[in-house]
Give the backbone structure.
Amino acid sequence: MMAFLRHFSRKTTAELLRLALPMVVSQGTFAVMIFTDRYFMSQIDPVHMAAALGGGVASFFSFCFFVGLLSYANAMAAQYMGAGEPHKCPKVVTQGMIMTLMSTPFLTLITFLVASIFDGMGHDAAQVELERTYYLILMSGVLVSLAKVCLSSYFAGIGRTHVVMICDVIGMVINIPLSYVMVFGKLGFPVLGIAGAGISTVAASVVALLLYAAFYFAREHRESFSVLGSFSVDIKILRRFWRLGFPSGLELFLNVAAFNLFLLMFQSYGVAEGAAAAVVFNWDILSFVPMIGLSVGIISMIGRFVGARDMARVDEVMTAAFAVALTYGALLALIYSTFRYPLVEVFAPPSGDFSDIRELSAFMMIGLSSYVIADAIILVSGGILRGAGDTRWLMVASVSLHWAMLVAQFFIIQVFEFSPRVSWLAFVALVLAIALVYALRLRQGRWRDPDVLERVMAE
């Protein structure tokens, strides 16, 4: 406690909140859009809701490697800002866009392969068709999504998180009403169901990307960061981007693959179990995704102070981040455990038997309330280590734990045929284990060794 108080700084805490809150809002818009789409699907039937979860997770799985890779533009831009080299920041964007274009043939192949796996997961035939439709529509806008990730990460890295918030909030304001009219056939639109939810998501992403481009090419930004001089291949920055971003991308890809396979196996229990998972992960995403916004702010500040070699400020950011995240996590844990039944009832369809879904979801909400604090530790620790360039260790540790969980789930679900409650408890145990491992790495301090940091900053 005394060590905590020694590094606590109101000024640094205020700076972190000022930087992170717009990102919390931005990430919150993403969570609200997913939540809303699945809520609209729940008003059709549980099969549509389960399909929205399966198709949406499969879509993110398909391009998440590139999301993890391009998201490292945040730390790189922040590190160049801290090192007093702001002219290199837009060069990071250019190299990111080059990698985005180069990803096209790989994404085309991935889309073709993933679209065929739904048939083999033991899902209801109607659910399979809905999942595939939703997945293919979302993947049609994948290059737009990746370009948006690159620009949003860049603006976060240079400390202009308000730009990210503005663009993403406007995208949400377009997405939700458009989704409503297209899903249910309002204002002259035909009833498109899950296809309408996918189309509205892609349309909103296009609008958000255009807004990012408008901010990027605005005169003040263009002149302050020498944007017009950045449109060329910079081998040194491209190589550094790939060296530090590749572990982040591979980590995200393998972790999402493990989670996606776990989710598909869990849905093989039946429609009620798949719907229960959709209900709980809807509430999970409303808590987890805003904390990702805090993590983005942490990466930006840690990257800046690592670039400036100011480890005293790094300690202040760490203390402020844990204070904010643990307070938020404790509040959510209390809400999820106390109001689990009313929260589950939000997704009750207008008609039909909801009792099995209700009881399993309420049990799973207890597990959710148990691991939200662990999520806070994971996201803060991961943000600090990522901002400091410790991406290779993060990849090895996180991937190893996620795939160990997947192997355990295979035996729990497929071999021993234990109940969905046992499977869920194993998932909760994984989250707690990751939090413990990350906290121990942070405490050991190897990531902050001066020689290690020099290698991180080397081009």
The CA atoms of residues 340 and 365 lie 6 Å apart.
